[in-house]
Amino acid sequence: MLALDIEVHRRDLTVAVAFDVGPGERFALFGPSGAGKTTILECVAGLVEPRRGSVGLAGRQLWSSEGARVPYWERKVALVRQDPALFPHLSVRQNLFYAGDRVEPATVDRLVSALELGRLLDVASARLSGGQARRVALARALATSYRAVLLDEPYTGLDASLRRAVTSLVIEEVTGRGAPAVLVSHELAETQAFADRLGVIDGGRLLQVGTPREVVLRPACRRVAELVGYRSFVACAGGELGVHPERVMAGAVPGAGVVLSGVVLAGRPSGVGFEVDLEVGAAVVTCRLDRDPAPAGTAMEVTALDPPAFGPDGVLVDPGRLVLR
Amino acid sequence: MAVPSHALAARASLRRASSVASLAGAGVVWVVLLGPVIALLSHLSPAAVVRSLGAPGALGPLAVSLEASALSLAVLVVVATPLAYLLAHGRLPGVRWWEAGLLVSLLMPPLVIGLLLVFMVGPATPIGGLLGGLHLSATNTFLALVVAEVYEAAPYYVLGAEAAFASVDRHLEEQAGLLGDPPRRVMRRVTLPLAAPGLATALATGWARAIGAFGAVIIIAYHPYGLPMQIWTTLDETGLASALPFALVLLVVALPLPLLAYGWSARARARH
Hints:
With 325 residues, chain A is α+β, with helices and mostly antiparallel strands. Chain A has two domains: 2-217, Rossmann fold; 230-324, CATH 2.40.50.140. Chain A has helices at residues 37-45, 92-96, 105-114, 130-142, 160-177, 188-194, 212-217, 222-227; strands spanning 2-9, 14-21, 26-30, 52-57, 60-64, 77-80, 148-152, 181-185, 197-202, 205-210, 232-237, 239-243, 248-250, 257-270, 273-280, 283-289, 299-305, 309-310, 316-317, 323-324. In chain A, the strands form four sheets. Chain A has a six-stranded mixed beta sheet with strand order 6-7-8-3-9-10, with helices on both faces. In chain A, helix 3 (105-114) packs antiparallel against helix 4 (130-142). Chain A is globular. The mean pLDDT of chain A is 91. Chain B has 272 residues and is mainly α. Chain B contains 13 helices and no strands. The mean pLDDT of chain B is 85. The chains are: A alpha+beta (325), B mainly alpha (272). Chain A binds chain B through residues 45, 47, 71-74, 76-79, 81, 83, 85, 87-89, 98-100, 102, 124, 126, 140, 144, and chain B through 169, 171-172, 174-183, 186, 190, 193-194, 271-272.
């Protein structure tokens, strides 16, 4: 179990968070750049010292305000940073086996195969591309005997199929070892694919923790809604409704959600469907539909599926309390 | 849009002209910097070299220079390397003050260094008195020669070594720690190998400064004679022709290490 309750002061921000990650559990921290995600990982790893609080792992205090101090080279935390930090004077093979007797050769073989590193083993690590270096860094971290895995934006530079392979690989490894894992990303889809639970962080504070589905369907506040993709907010008496472009269907289906009537402003192709901007009262609602939008100026009705409602203070409220104007 | 052929031809001509100009410039630099060496070699005959160096006691200064400089280098490596590491990692309070102090000593004329050393370690000083109690002296002794060489070479070595340590990416050292290496092992397995090219250059510079030290040496360590003092006194007593063979010997012993270090350092940097 990883237990974190810390306050960290940076020059521009104070990060204050508390959460636990159970053995074999996968926790993701999602938020914009500068929110404090990397700082949290560095605190767990021991590279940054909190101002107060505690960091516990596998029943042992790694750091506490009361004086516990385990140096980072003794924490057995596998941290994969944004900078792969491969040792340039060593080959890929030497990088993979750097941790010496903490490395299990059978695990290295498995990781090399899963991450397609076989033909790179004897290459000087300084000659690798960015994506190759990231895969080696991931294998190097996962090959050691670790008590927790921390991944900081591990998908950068990887194509879609390798991202899926990395996700599956990490899930398999941490589940097999029963180690808590924390992944940090500013890409929602990747955190959702990885995590059992998702924490949304902004301005150094955890705004919401829940399952990936919960966080997207029931964002705890307007800010979380904005971060997880709600682009439109329609004013109501008593607050506003959040509309997610992918949670809208064409036509009026009152039983499925809230019907919005408006005028088409613009439409454009988006993936296999279309994105339509609809003027609803004073708001512009963006919808993803699977049919050709009507021309601009046409009246149109859409249904927002079970939209979250926010009170005047921006906090999630019961949608029954609001009346659409 | 395709580039017209006349524009391509003009670019090719410009590149050729730039290469020629660059080579010519390098040639001028070689001639200017190595001119004195060429002049030295052109004024020496093998017979004159053998005659000068074959005289009784002629190679004594060579032995003194080699011993003193080797010892100075050892002192620098043992004492100044950790200092350079601490400065590079910001572990010493007032890093900028340390660097300013080193720069001041680097910019001081060597003769002035020698005069100041007299006031610091001369026989009438507390340090001189302490040494005297141990039957040692830091003036006109082998010890004094080592002290003078260390003072002249230290700022060059420390600042060069500091730059070498600072060039090692801190993330790499942290990563080694995250993989289980305590700081000493990180130093051995990551920091030193990656800093080695820069350290080699700093060491070579320190060697060249130590073995060629003269300004402080002539004030505080007139005896025993190292090669620079031998050249000076021979020039003064016998003339230029007699001094030139010792100048050649000084070049022969002073240059190889820096040249080797530079070559190895350049190849190592290219690999990383």
